[in-house]
């Protein structure tokens, strides 16, 4: 039988052909990547791996033993060599003396926390990767290769009431058990002692936490990890409860389209409720398994116990908010009432948890809102400061559901004691890690919708706000162009980590959508998609517009007049009107920027429809500023003659302008070269004498959207290089 066929509950991915070409550190990287690639083996960002490797010491030229171990942060699946810390083994082991010298030692003591800073003194090869708190688990276990994973099947054993007996029953003498203990130097010593007592041990179930196992050969270590997980999963499978899972079903899910409609109504209101102190980005996660859980009899009891693996609850918080709503018999309004009440109770409960568990030196209380909300019939909604974080949170709770399913099948599920949970959540080392993170960017936690993002000012604005950390919805009449811009942003900023999110909700920091703003249904459909993707909106920038060139006689046909107004005025209004519903549902401040034109203020020949439509748009800005007050600021950006890369300046318009202004040119020149000629000509007419670029426009679209202009609404800002005749008065 092929190796890969021996495993039904995990994916066997070791490739000798590949591994044998790699150096020992790269083999560790390969092993880590393939372990991380299977969610049943470990969660995103969870677990770590190590190899003790003989290397030449750059100082002495002698061969030394080096511990390569996955460092702090990062993710096994996507790890590169740079994610691994390297420590001189002899120096690392010498730390034990320092630890033992301390008068007070043991789990959660000061000396234990201070060991983390000591690891840096043992760095081999000037490696800047920071060691994680799990380093001593790897360093103190006297085997060459160690895998520490968070597999659902192992956590299920570790989170069961009779976890020690179950470990014995499933694994016999080859796997031992250690009770829950916060990871650190002391836990490493506990494991070392276990192995001393029983040198035949191959691994340990870590109470309320996961699995750790080892071998002197790296491939053997990998295969052992899979074998142990397979064994646990196979055992659990034998106890499947079928219809009786989670105590049986209490509610039924509405069909998919009804569920979607409820979510579209629900998400902006819910986002507003949880975002009153900090804004959150949502992820909706709905699978058969999630629905089975939220609809079950046991869901309220199990949800209250919370998640077990510390890695899980750092994101999911100590417990989710479960709302006992009957999707068959109760109305949407009842759901909202229950959510409102549930959130109030949750925050009070969180505050009392904080008060009861805090130490004199604990960090200040964090946001008391839940990050996971469970609704019967609807599914799981997760909140995070970024899309990536909310996806990870959704992933972790969905894994916790699998842990509860398995644990309840073989035993009774239990959570981590509250004080232990608190001591992880508010660990000073964890706080220091948070403090070391770069400050949040200006548009972090924001969803910015840019309509017209397929080209020109819209595309430049999408790039500009993304640079400030925004989640960007790139919308355009050309869906293809919108998606191309979204792809550019995703390529720059990455899709993030976390494998969760149903449909569009599994998206990254940018999405591209097609929209026709002359059609209200199309605008509504666009906002519905945005709600399902991110949970709501914060800022809207409309750059979509149309300029119809007059015919040879200088006339614009009537239908083109209508089209000009339909896009430049009514379209902008419809966008604002549909966005208003979301802003009002969220009860969070927002901003709207409409792109008008300096032509709105300058009367001239040849652009009657366009100019008057932009004059109307200027006044639309002012009227909307009043209509949408006090929640939303509305301002206008009035560009002039941005010729660079503009869809408003196709080749024929550029040429007709060059002829009109008597600027000489060659028919053979490229469109961009002709545009540059025209831009240079226009620049000469301005007070600043320099061409106006897309970046100039995008900068102001961004500034007007940002809180830097928080006291400005109903204003039009010209970005025209300085045109005296366009001064507003
Ligand atoms: Zn762990």
Please outline what is shown here.
This protein has 25 helices and 18 strands.
Describe it.
This protein has 729 residues and is α/β, with parallel strands linked by helices. It is 45% helix and 13% strand. It is built from 25 helices and 18 strands. The strands form 3 sheets. The protein has a 7-stranded mixed sheet, with helices on both faces. β10 (372-375) and β11 form a beta hairpin. α18 packs across α25. The N and C termini lie far apart (84 Å). The model has no long low-confidence stretch (mean pLDDT 94). It binds zinc ion (ZN). Residues 47, 148, 150, 209-210, 311 line the site of zinc ion. Zinc ion (ZN) is lined by residues 47, 148, 150, 209-210, 311.
* Unreliable stretches covering 5 or more consecutive residues: none
Overall form: elongated
Give a count of the beta strands, DSSP E runs of length 2 or more: 18
Count every helix, treating DSSP H or I runs of 4 or more residues as helices: 25
Biggest beta sheet summary: 7 strands, mixed
Mean pLDDT across residues: 94
Ligands in the model, by name, code or SMILES, are: zinc ion
Radius of gyration: 30 Å
Helix content: 40-55%
Arrangement of strands in the largest sheet: 3-2-1-4-7-6-5
Terminal CA distance reads: 84 Å
Question: From the helix content, strand content and strand pairing, which structural class follows?
Answer: alpha/beta
Strand % is 5-15%
